[in-house]
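The protein record quoted for completeness.
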Amino acid sequence: MLPFAKGSFCPTAATVQGYNEASLAPAPTEAVRIHLAQCDFCSASWQLLSAHTPAADAAIAMPVPPVPVSILCLAAQLPSEQPRQHVAQRHAA
């Protein structure tokens, strides 16, 4: 029994995603199809990628809420970082 692991002969996740999206040329498509039938690891990866396509994930993405004004006001009151040249000059003397 083969170990459940990605091998050096396995296609990349991008290639499997291309297969999933039907964006590969015919020869690579056939090679990936044959590989998926023989490799449990890649078959599982393909199933995962099929269930979580980028387009589906983008549709459920939550918008980032705006930063509250009170936080922006507090951030504006923070002292800006001053150049530390005076510290280096003190230690050089």
About this structure: The chain has a mean pLDDT of 80. The chain has six helices and no strands. The CA atoms of residues 16 and 46 lie 6 Å apart. The two ends are 72 Å apart (CA to CA).
